[in-house]
Each structure stands twice: as C-alpha cells, then as structure tokens.
Amino acid sequence: MTKWVYTFGNGTAEGRADMRNLLGGKGANLAEMASIGCPVPPGFTITTEACTYYYQNNKAYSPELKEQVLNGLKGVEASMGKKFGDAENPLLFSVRSGARVSMPGMMDTILNLGLNDQTVEGLAKASGNPKFAYDSYRRFIQMYSDTAMGVDIHKFEAVLDRVREENGYKHDNEMTVEQLKDVIAEYKKIGIAEGKPVPQDVYEQLWGAIGAVFGSWMSERAIFYRKLNNIPADWGTAVNVQTMVFGNSGDNSATGVCFSRDAATGENYFYGEYLKNAQGEDVVAGIRTPQQISKIGNERRHLTLPCMEEEFPEVYKQLCDIRKKLETHYKDMQDMEFTVENGKLFMLQTRNGKRTGLAALKVAVDMVHEGLITKREAVTRVEPGHLDQLLHPMFDKSAQRDVMAQGLPASPGAAVGQIVFNAADAEQQAAEGKKVVLVRVETSPEDIAGMHASQGVLTARGGMTSHAAVVARGMGIPCVSGVSDLRIDYAAQTLTAGGVTLKAGDMISLDGTTGQVMRGALPLRDPEMAGDFGEFMGWVDEIKHLVVRANAETPKDADTARKFGAEGIGLCRTEHMFFDPSRINHMREMILAKTEADRRQALDKLLPYQRNDFVQLFKIMEGLPVTIRLLDPPLHEFLPHKLAEQEEIAKELGVTVEEIQARTAQLHEANPMLGLRGCRLAVVFPEICEMQTRAIIEAALEVSAQGIKVVPEIEVPLISSKKELEICKKIIDETAEKVFAEKGQKVEYLVGTMIELPRAALLAGEIAEIADFFEFGTNDLTQTTLGMSRDDAGSFLPKYVEKGIYDRDPFQSLDTNGVGKLIAMACKDGAATNPNIYLSICGEHGGDAASIMFLNKYLKGVSCSPYRVPLARLAAAQAAVKAKKA
Amino acid sequence: MTKWVYTFGNGTAEGRADMRNLLGGKGANLAEMASIGCPVPPGFTITTEACTYYYQNNKAYSPELKEQVLNGLKGVEASMGKKFGDAENPLLFSVRSGARVSMPGMMDTILNLGLNDQTVEGLAKASGNPKFAYDSYRRFIQMYSDTAMGVDIHKFEAVLDRVREENGYKHDNEMTVEQLKDVIAEYKKIGIAEGKPVPQDVYEQLWGAIGAVFGSWMSERAIFYRKLNNIPADWGTAVNVQTMVFGNSGDNSATGVCFSRDAATGENYFYGEYLKNAQGEDVVAGIRTPQQISKIGNERRHLTLPCMEEEFPEVYKQLCDIRKKLETHYKDMQDMEFTVENGKLFMLQTRNGKRTGLAALKVAVDMVHEGLITKREAVTRVEPGHLDQLLHPMFDKSAQRDVMAQGLPASPGAAVGQIVFNAADAEQQAAEGKKVVLVRVETSPEDIAGMHASQGVLTARGGMTSHAAVVARGMGIPCVSGVSDLRIDYAAQTLTAGGVTLKAGDMISLDGTTGQVMRGALPLRDPEMAGDFGEFMGWVDEIKHLVVRANAETPKDADTARKFGAEGIGLCRTEHMFFDPSRINHMREMILAKTEADRRQALDKLLPYQRNDFVQLFKIMEGLPVTIRLLDPPLHEFLPHKLAEQEEIAKELGVTVEEIQARTAQLHEANPMLGLRGCRLAVVFPEICEMQTRAIIEAALEVSAQGIKVVPEIEVPLISSKKELEICKKIIDETAEKVFAEKGQKVEYLVGTMIELPRAALLAGEIAEIADFFEFGTNDLTQTTLGMSRDDAGSFLPKYVEKGIYDRDPFQSLDTNGVGKLIAMACKDGAATNPNIYLSICGEHGGDAASIMFLNKYLKGVSCSPYRVPLARLAAAQAAVKAKKA
Question: FRET pair for B788, CA 20 to 30 Å: which of A400, A760, B209, B570?
C-alpha cells in the first residue's frame, strides 16, 4: 500500500528534510524540525504523489488516502488531547500547500479549519476570548469561501468595509463580538445566495480544503510562476494539515518571519519582523507595519518601533537558540516562521532563505570563513543567475542624489525607469522597449508579470518580507518597499513624496540597496570585481573544469571579456566587422561584383581592415586563444533594402539602382536560415575565404613579431560533411602557405568547425578526423533540430512553453532531450576518431547555467557573451561539484 | 606487391567477369571470354586501382606499374610471335578505357598503336597491303594527336577534306598510297607546328596512350556523364591494351556490333550491324550506313542491303555459336563487338547489353519462360527508372499520322516538341519550360546535356548503335536515327524531308518505336498495363516485402494510384483541397478571423467540402488504407500577395484591403519552413484540427454505412515531441468521440505522425508510445538535417554535387549517411517501444529506387506519387532480392 500521509510532532516525525520531493519543502522541514526538538505544532503531510494521483485520475483521491488522513488526524487528536469538531474544546487545523520549491504567495492556505456554529462557541469558552473566537470564525469563512468555494472575495470585504464605515473603525480588530456575529451571518447569506455555503461538517471542510490546495496548483498565477521559474507542472504540491496555534489570541501572542542572517545583504545578524496579536498572513500581506525582531535590525533599518528582543525577551532568547540550532543543522541561512500563542513559541516553518545575489555571495563566503561549509559547498550556494545582480551597473557614487523618499531596502540594486502605476502598463510599455519602474501601494500575486517586466518596484506599504520584497528578490530586480511617506493616486496617475509630485511616464530612480527613492534618472556605473566577489570567483576557478571563453569581436568586447575572467575568445564573428560604415560599401561592392576578378578587387580593399581587427584582438588577448569564424550570414543581409538607401549606395558605388535591386532579388531566399551561407559561401566564392584567412595569418605574423604568442583558430561555419570541411581547409591551408612564403615567417594555427547542423552532429566521427576543434553552434543547431526559426517562433513558442511541450524556451536553455542528445553523440563520435579534439559550445546556451550543467560532462569549454562569463564560470564550477558527487 | 596488370588471351586469363570493379567491365569480360574459349586477341588490363593511384599521386604512375606492363607486353609478343616496334612485322595494340560501368562514347580509345615511320613499312610488307598500312598509320596519328597530345582534330580533317576535294573523292578509302603518305607528312607538320609531334618511340606511344585514357576519366564530358548517371568519380577507369586485329585490312575483313536479342524491343533474334573493311569506330561514328548481321534484322527494319548471314555465312555461323555460348554463360542479353580480319573472327568485347525499358521487360519475361533465369533474377533485370518509359504516354493509335520520313527506331517511345537544331538551344529552351525535340545530322558526346533536356532526338545519320541511339536509350528518351531522307540546314535553321520543310520552333512528333517522323503534335494516350508488364509486375509483388502506397488527394490521383497498383493512399495532403476556387475564400475567411468564434464559423463552411473529399477518396480506395495528413503549410500561403487579388478578395469577403495586408504582414515569416505550420497550427488553433477530424470521421461513418470498410489514418505533421502529439491526439480523440455520440455509430481509426524533424527522429522511442504509425517526411527531414532549403539550394547545390560533397542531389535520392542514419535510429527506437508501429516514408524519396534499396530493411512501407508506384514496387522487389542474398 502506498504511504500517502506522514505525521510529525512531539519530538518525532515520519518524514525527513531530504524527503522534499515527496513531502514538499514545508512538510519535509516541519518533519525535520520536529525530529531535532523544535517546538512544532503536531500535524501530518499529504504527499505530492497524492496530488499527482489526483490530476492523473480526473481529480479523484486515492481510495487509501481517506483512511490514512483519518489515522493521521486521530494521532494529532491523541497528542493534543483535543477532538476535531468537538463542540467544547475543538481541535483546529491550518491547511497549507507545500511544493518541492517555495512558491511564495502562489498557493492557497486555509486557517482555523474546524470552526462551525457549534465549535466556535466551544473555542470562545475554552479560550475565554469570544472576540478572538468569532474573529477566527469570520476569517475562516472568508478564506474558505474564497479558496475552497470560489466565492468572490470582494463581497466579503464589502461587508467589512460597511461595518467599519458605519462604526468609524480604522482596523477590523475594533469590532465587537456582536458585530462579528452579524458579519458572520452576512457572510453565510452570501454563501447561500451563491449556492456555495461553507460546510458545517468539519470533515467536509477538511476534504474541501485539501481539494482547494490541490486545485491551487493549477491556478493561473501558479502556472505563471512555474513558467517564470521553470518548475515542471507534474511535481505537484503536498498538503500540510497542522494544529492551529494562534498568534492573534491576545497581546501576549504574536506571529513573525525571521532570517538567520540578513537576506538582503547577507550580514550575519538575526533579522526578522513580527506583529503582535496577528495571524501569519497579516505579516506577509503587509497591511500593518511590522516590528523588528532584534535591536540590531532596528539599527540597520533606522527604525524605532520596539522590537521583540525588548517586548518578548524570553521568547526572543528561545528563538535565538533555534536560529543557531537550525543554521548549524542545515548549514545554510534559514528563513523561519513562528507564532507565539499566549507567550509560548511555536515554529511553523523553516527553509533555506531566499536571498539576493549580494547576500548569497556574502553568506557563502562568511560560512567558509566560519568553518561551516567548504569552498566546494560555497560555490553551490550562489545561483549563477544571481551573479547578474552583482555585475549590473550601480549608481555612480559621485552623482548628486535628489532623494525624495526613504523606504526599506527590500531588494538591492539600482533601477532607473519611467513610472507606471499598474502591472498591465508595465508589461505593455516594456514590450514596447521602455524601461519602467512599477509603483504600487502594495503588490499582489496578480502583479507578477508586471514586476518581471519592470526595472524595479516601489511600494508604499509592506516590510522586508512583504510580497513585493520577496518576489523582487527572487527575480533579482531592485525593490524599495514600505515608503510610508509615499502617496499614490491611481486615478490621477501620480505619486507624491517629500513635497514632489511625479506623474506616469516621469523618470524615477530606486536604490534597492539603501532604500532611497530619487526623482529623475541617476547615472549608472560598472560594478566592483574585488572583495568577496573576487575571493569567491577564485574558488570557482579552482573548482571548475570547463574553459570559459567569451564571444567578442570588438576591442571593447574583448576588454570586457578579460575583465570578467574569460580565458580567451571562443567566437569572433567576422561579419560583424563588415557592418562598420567604413567597410560596408566595400562589402557591397564585393557582393555586386559580376566576376571573380571584380570580387577579388573589392576583397582586397577589405583585407587591411580585417587584418587590423585581428591585430587589435590578438594584442588585447595577449596570447589567450582566439577563435575566428569565417563569414557566415547570407550575402543579402549586407545589401540595402530601402529605395532611398539603394539610391545612395548606387551613387557611391557607381552602379545603377536596378543593378542593386536585381542582385538583391537574385540573392533573395525563401528560407535564408537554410540557404547560401556559412561554408557554402566559401565553396561557391573561395576568394572570400582566402581574403579572411590572409587577414588572420598576416595579423598573427605581425603580432607574433611583437613577442606575443598567437595561435589563431580558424573556424568554418555550417559544415554538413567531411568533404565540405576538406575543401575549406584546403583553401585555408593553401592561403596560409602562400602568406608564409611571402613573409618568410610561419605561425601555428588551428582549423576547426562549427557543429550547427544535425547532419554534422550525425557525421561528427568522420568530420573530427580533420578538425582541430568542434564548436557547437547551439542556436542554429536548435533551429534545425527542432525545425523552429528563432525569428518566427514567437507566434507559437509561448503557447508551447505554457502547454509544457517544452519545459523552457529552447533558445534560452538547451533542449537536452533533443539537441543535447545530438551533442552527446557528436562529442562521443568526435573524440573517438580524434582524442585531442577541443569540444566547446558558443551562443546563448554557453551562458545558461542549466545548459552548462548538462554539457559539463561532454565538453572542454564554453563561450558566451562577455557579461555572462562570470555566470558561466560559476555554473561550470557547480557542474564540477555535482559531477564529483555523482 | 600490388598486382596492377592482368593478362588475357589464348584460352586463358588472370581475370574473371566478377572482377569488374578492378578490371572495368570491358577488361573483366575480355578475360572471361578468353577463359571460356572465345577468340579474343591477347592483351592485358591495367586495373582501375592504377587509375585511382594516378589521381591520388598527382598524376604519377606507381613505380611497379612499368615493370608489370612490360611483362604483360612480353607475354603478348610471345603468344603472337611478333614484337612491339619490330620494323619487319610489328605487333600493334589498341588502347581502350574500361570503367566499372559502360560510359558509351565518353572515353578515349587509341588504335594501331606501335606504328611509326619504320614499322608502317614493315606492316605494309607483312600485310602485302601498303594502302591499309598507311591508312592505319594516318588514323593512328590523327587519334593519338587528338587524344594523347590534345591537338585540334579539325586541323587534320581539313587536310583530308582538301585531298578529297582536290581529287573529287567521296570516301577516304579512295585515296592512293602516295596521297596517304602526303597526308601523313602534313599531319606530322601540324604536330611539329603545335609543338606536339606524335612520338616515334613505340613505348613512349604506349605510356602516352595510357595517360590519355586515365586523363579522359576527368574530361568534361565524362564528368557530365557520371553526374547524370550517379557514377562516383573515385571509381576510376581500367586500361585495356590488346593486340590489334584489322577489320579494315581488305574486303574479307569487317567489324561490327551485335546484340544477342533486339535491344530496342527485346525480341529474341540475333540483331546487329557491321561494316566491311572498316575499323570499329566507323560503326559507332555512324558515318557509313552499316549492314545488318541477320536476314531477320533486315526484315524487322525493312532494310535491303546484303547481310552478314549472306556475305560471310561461315563467320556468321561462328558468331551465332558465340552468341548462344555467351548468353547461356552470362544468362543475360549480350552486347558484343567483333572484328573479322581476313575471314578470321575475333571477339573484342562482350557485356550485358543496354536496352530500353520495353526490351528489358521482354528479355526478363522471356528468359524466365525459357528457363534461363528465375523470377527473382528477372525482377533485378529491369531498372526501376526504365519502367517510366513503359508508363509514359504513347501516341494514340487512332490518330491520323502525317508521316514525313522513316528512320531507324533507335529508342522507343513517343516524343512531341518544338524543333531545335543544337544542344545549347535545347538546354536553354527546356529551362524555359518548353518541350523540344533535338534535330542533328549526328550527335556527339558534346550534345549530351542537350539530349537530356529534349523530349526526343532525331538524327539524319547513324545506325541503331550510333551515339544518338545508344545514349538516347540509356536516358530513356525516344530517338529516331539514320533518316537518310532528312536534309538539315543549320544556317537556315530548317529541316526538309518528304517534301516538307519545317523550321526551328515548329512542332514535330517522333515515334521511337516505329522510326516514324511526323509533322505537328500528335495526340498522346496512356500506356497499357497488361501483357508482359502485368506478368512481370505480378512477380514483383510476389517478391517485395514493402507496402507501396501513393500520395494522392484528388479522385483522379486516387484512380491513377490504383491503376498503377498502389496498396492504399500513404499521404493525402489536405491543404491541397483548400486551394480549390470554391473553398479558398472560406479558408481565407478563417485566416482573417479575429476571434475563435469567427474562425469556427468559417471552418463550418469548409467542413462539408472536406467531408465530401474524404467520402470520395474512401469510396475509390474501397477499403484500402488512407492516411490523411492534417493541415500543414503556414497560413500565409493561402492569402493573396498581389494588390489586385487582395482588392478582389477584400470585396468578396467584406473586409478592407488593409485588413488583408495587415494579417499578411502579421503572418509573414523570416523562415516559413521553420515557422508556424504543421501540428503547431493545431496547438495554436485547435479548431482547425477539430474540423478536419470531424470531416474525416463523418466521411468514414458515411462510407462505412455503405458497406465499405474504412479505417482512416489521421496523420499529425511536424511533430517534435511526444507531448505535442499527445495534445493533438487528444483533440482528435475528443472530436471523434463527439461525432460518434452524435451519430450513434463508431468507426475504427488510427492516429500517427510524420517524422520530419531531427528532434522527432531523436525522440522516436517515446513518441512511438502513442503513435499508431510513423511516416518519415524525408523532404522536410532532409531540409532540416542538412540545414538546406529546397527552394534556395539551387544557388549552391549543383556546385556541391559537382565537387562531390554530396554524391547525388539529396532531395532526389536519400542522403543515407546523414538523414538515413536518423531514420535508422528512429525506426529502431520506435519499434522498441511500439512493436506494432507501421513505419513508412513519403515524398520524393519514396519513389526513388536507390532510397528504397537503402530503406527496405527499416520500413514496412513507402508512399510516392501515383506515376512512380510501379517503380517503387519494382525497387522494393529488387531490395528484397538483394536483402535475401546478403
């Protein structure tokens, strides 16, 4: 019989932290906490497999599940000495989702489950706090109706609003017991009117809640979040049914969220926020401004409200012990939720804390220094994608800051953009290419797509653990939250702070590291490479096996590449050099030439430019390898397509417009991606290949003569057979020999090929016989293997990712099943016939962490854009750690 | 030590018939004939490997070759009792090329080698025939200068012309010895003036001749012929050095070519032509009109010159015995060359005779009836490509024939076209889409490309074995040769015969089966399927394993397919049905629709048309399987691109031109081949798939109700993953269930997929789990695997075939190394997870014999255009025979 339910509580548990896939992150850690003696309210976890079963069986539960849930429930009743549905002293539950990975705010939760018209009275009596009991019942009906019954939440809020207004209340907690009872009566009427009353039977409530959690897995916002974070739909969610403890049962109660270190900066002090007399969702919702856990937290954030260390010193001490215990146990920064019920501390959750790139780096480096983790562990603690944050521009420190408001530094980094006031505008304007900053009173899960499209997020309300703060940190975008001074008028589309009013479209700057908000667009500057970053990247380079090079053509790119630690140039696209205004017309002259002789004449004019390009690159790279790809794109890309341009070029080149048009028409292709390009150009027009080879070899000789070792690597693109490479290699070798003879000097050089067509991958064994290196051009290889044009896929690819046909955009992250299989075959076959062959990839996937993880065991190197080099180095190190473990 | 030289003669030989790859066809058969006791002049063969060595070593001979040639030569001297270069009684040689396969007229030959100023006198004395000796010397100088020295042949002909004119001679053989000596003196002057005299040293002559034969392998015309016939360049040619025998040594000498059966019709009688007092090339050149070998030959051709049976009865009897011996030995129709020297018969060559498709079929069927070969052998005796000839239209027998001339029926079939008078015009006009008939006095190897471009060939001179006749038969195009009544005026661009004058561009009709030439364009009709053809195809179907279906959408195609023996429809391209004028606008309405509801409305209008299409197909196919592919092309293909059309459509559909243009622009794709098409349409617009499924299922139910069993096979195109097929299959299954519920009836149906993307082939194992069948769409699979657009490859593919990068156009014949490897993998993986899966291909390669030969072991079926079905059946049978042998 499958075990669908795992119990925990009372210092013991059936689950463990490493059962995250089965129990979800929350369930696994509840079990672990219970096992190591943390005060966890008892409960049980329904496995993710039950969720998968549910969706595979047309939303039906496994028959065995019912019995196991009831057994679990009986266990909790026994341990608590209370009965579920007991009219005198009822046992109440929270029902929470918990997937393998945290999906903050995405999943539904139901609290206070087990309350009905009878048990609420029992709760009132047993707690001696009727207001707390009826408020809990009200909250339960509202949550359950929304989550399990699908009733519009606004109908309930309208009732509350009316009661508040009628009585002039600012907060819900000002309501009297009678008023709460009236509210409950009205709530029930809404349910009846909608045909969706909340069941009085507590077991019916329980099953409804379990179904609601499973259902929330397939909610639109959950699907969107999964898409954004590449989480497969078939993982499913677990359900945690846990004894309720009440942070809202009086002023000796509280609830809070804390981090074992500062999640924004990584600094090693106890950071957290709590609310007195509140339930957990009140903290996350950001409606009330929370207080700090520790004095140092107040210091760091320049806050003045009393902190827990002062208000609950005993509980704070207990919490500090647990902080230490959990961090030592998990050897990572923890993100914990707790509740204090009448002075008694309960832990409701722990998990490895989400953190900014800055914090991840600092925590990793500090923990190595503290002896808590090894360097190998440390390199796995920073997400490669988060390095981006450290490499992205910062505000120039010398720039004058016109600070109009101060908020919480909720997610670090500098953001500059035009103000938008809702998520839809953010998405739309970003799609038009504008840089925007999203400004909201507070954010909610519906805003996620808009946040993702923004440079940064600014909110008037909410703490460091509010929705805006958590999500922005996850996305790696800057956020300033809780700017209490900020007034937003959605109708007028304006914001006001510090006496300044800005309207939609105005420029604004956010410093997510300090919490400052500035009018206008502040100047940005490059980030620092030293300190913790430098130390950490040193470990990365010690550990990784893959060589990381950069794609670069210009001296600027080459400089950047070296600054970011590139070990050479892996791809120099020579065609980029032809688009320079000083050269493009020679190129066009070559294309328009009617005879080989005329073509050679035009090529002779291009030669000095090309040679000089390579001289510069070789000098900057100072002996590091440089792979130079021969001309690749179809020739028509170089011709002007607009009449005005054609006329201008015609005049400059002394030809007629008709000639230009005729040649353009002649070169037109139905599918240029699959046309006359790559090495096909060299086969049809060998003189182009000759000129480029000459430029490379002459440049290499010139720079070698200056004492810099140069071994140029000449790369032939779009090969589909050995014979084709043979023909091109012959042109290259003969040209090189000719140059050597002319100059009376020789230089070593390599000849290799792009593998970017399926046929080349299939025949890699024989091609490798005459290639010094293979570089997988995974952009084109993806296009041909999947039969999918990157330029055209926009009309269907989003639908494909949405429907799960591809887990991720295959142009961003390697399609390991298809393209990856081809690469694996080609590497094996290539190395079999040529054991010394250098195997690498270039293109988008060379800078994608997941792709590098997959390719690590097949390749010797990757090449990516200069800005992604640190990411690729880190991903390579993580792959090496993983490979050693396996 | 490598053996480079193989001797033959005197009833023994070092080689054998099965050593064709090493000795070439001619050499292998000379050896075989010598072994079985035919009178073969002794000689030796230099292997094809020596040729390959020559080209791989920068045109140098292997050092061992010289010694082996000299040894071979000594052997011949010993056996003949003559010495090479002997001034008294010189031994002379012919030097002939001989590749693995016959390349008629393509390769150079040198006769009378060993003559010089001394030996010619010896030959004159020894033969007692000075005129013969000096004529032989003259011929030798002319041939050698042309072939080995590269002197312009016309300079020699000018000398002959002048002598003929000065003396009023009609034929060269009227020249006196003194005149011949003068001619020789002038020939030598030409050689000296050009700096290319013929060497007097006979060994120097021999090596020059061997080099010339090797050189002729790389001549332009040889390269063209190889390209046309898919012969790899690296096969090389052998060189046959053989004792000269002289058919021109007097009136008791002769030379001829004969076939053991009629090569044009296949009829079993001894057919051949000879010339008295002539050398072999005189027969082939077609300058003198040859005489028939046999009386029956005269009868069949309505000729009256005396035949060999009458003029050389003894020799004829010997030849008949040899005919019998060789045909029984080789069990195939033989094409033999012989020479009679002073009444003594010598066999110079035998080989399996080239024949027309008609003859191939008849010979194969007759030989089975004669007990000479088995049915399995018989099916290998007809080239699949030649079936074409039997299936191509014939002249309507009832049509009035305006016969203007009678010639030889040199290559059977009916040709209608506009007259052109040279090969270049033929090529150019054919490229413009015109049908042309090439009319020449005689053809030469330079005309091959023009012949290939023509519907038929008409020549004034030449027999059944003339260049025109042999080449036309090889190409399968009709030819009438030797129309002695025909006068051609190249300058005026006219031809005259039977009192009628036609000019270039006029229509003419040729009957290659009867030799008739008719003015105007005669009506054509479909060929017969019964008789020998029917019997033969019966054997084919007994032997083959592959199922052969046809690609067909229209009732006409389906009818043709059945007539040609298709076992079902393997590919019904539904989009072809949408281009019908009555429907295209509904299709456009669908594409222009802005909402799903509007799209559905337009689709509803298309539904009855589609349903009716399928009803018709199911009825015609009477229970044979029908595979229907869902909509495949990108939608923009259905929209008009010209303004006038757009305006018209806008009016008809009640939309603005701007709307049409906007939608067209929206649908525009950079690489439509790799864009929104195939199953991607079904994923994005499921309603299209629903409509098509409904049409198919409703039609199947309707036809089933009439008692015809229908199991429609629904095919999803452009699949790249299992999930994609799952999504499409779900739409299909749900629609089918809906129709079943509506109609209260069910019908069995299959759902399968095209495999036309490399990724689909790579993931075939998992895709097969839910597919009833795979059909490899090798057109698209070739485009994506090779990264080569069929529409655009014209700019480089010819160069690629020329340079040997691809042996053949990969769109015509499957790229077995690349695409074939993918198919083999996919078949293996697919069958592993789904042993019952039906594996087939469709597209161009389904009707290509070489592709079928390769695919036979992987597939269960092929599908091709209706006209290629017989070819595919035959190729499948040949593949089965070959597979059993292996």
Answer: B570
What pLDDT was estimated at residue B105?
A: 63
With an 8 Å Cβ cutoff, are A758 and B784 in contact? yes
What are the tokens at A549?
């090079």
Name the residue type at position B611: R
Show Cβ contacts of residue B304 under 8 Å, excluding neighbours closer than 6 positions.
B298
Strand partners, B5: B46
CA terminus-to-terminus distance, chain B: 31
Q: What is the DSSP string of A33-84?
A: HHHTT-----EEEE-HHHHHHHHHTTS---HHHHHHHHHHHHHHHHHHT-EE
| Residue B483: Cβ-neighbour burial (10 angstroms; 0-12, 13-18, 19+) | buried
In eight-state DSSP terms, residue B400 is P
Residues of B with catalytic function? 467, 842
> What residues of chain B, 34 to 93, have a C-beta less than 8 Å from chain A?
none
Phi, psi of B209 (to 5 degrees): -70, -40
Q: Map residue B580 onto helix, strand or coil.
A: coil
Contacts of A740-745 with CB under 8 Å at 24 or more apart are A740/A697, A743/A698, A743/A701, A745/A701, A745/A704, A745/A705
Q: Answer with the residue of higher pLDDT: B114 or B385.
A: B114
Helices A130-144 and A177-193 cross at an angle (nearest 10°) of: 20
Quick one: average pLDDT of B64-75? Answer: 95
Q: What is the DSSP letter of B145?
A: I
- What six digits make up the tokens of A79? 């341990």
The two three-digit tokens of residue A249, written as one number: 């049962």
Instruction: Collect the ranges in chain A with pLDDT lower than 50.
Output: none
Question: Mind telling me the catalytic residues of A?
Answer: 467, 842
- The Cβ of residue A312 has, within 10 Å, a number of other Cβ atoms equal to 21
Two structure tokens written together for A540? 């990365």
User: d(Cα A379, Cα A540) in Å, to the nearest integer?
Assistant: 6
**3-class SS of residue A305:** coil
More reliable by pLDDT, B474 or A763: A763
Mutate: best of B779, B788, B803, B817, partner A, most A CBs <10 A: B788
Q: Residue A123's pLDDT is what?
A: 95
User: How far, in Å, CA of A471 to CA of A102, rounded?
Assistant: 11
How many Cβ pairs within 8 Å bridge chains A and B?
174
- Quick check: B792 and A720 CB within 8 A? no
The CA-based dihedral angle spanning residues A151, A154, A159, A164, taken in that order and rounded to the nearest 10 degrees: 150
Q: How many helices (H) and strands (E) does chain B have?
A: 36, 34
Asked if B524 contacts B415 with a C-beta cutoff of 8 angstroms, the reply is: no
What is the reported pLDDT for A473? Answer: 74
Structure confidence by residue, pLDDT tens digits, B299-329? 988 888 999 999 999 999 999 999 999 999 9
Asked if residues A783 and A674 have their Cβ atoms less than 8 Å apart, the reply is no
Chain A residues in contact with B759 by the CB 8 A cut-off are 785-787, 815, 818-819
The reported pTM is: 0.78
Q: Residue B663: what are its φ and ψ, rounded to 5°?
A: -65, -40
b/e map A99-117, b = 16+ CB within 10 Å: bbebbbbbbbbbbbbbbbe
Count other Cβ atoms within 10 Å, centred on residue B655: 16
Cβ distance A762 to B785 less than 8 Å, yes or no, reads: yes
Contact across the interface for B799 and A758, Cβ inside 8 Å: no
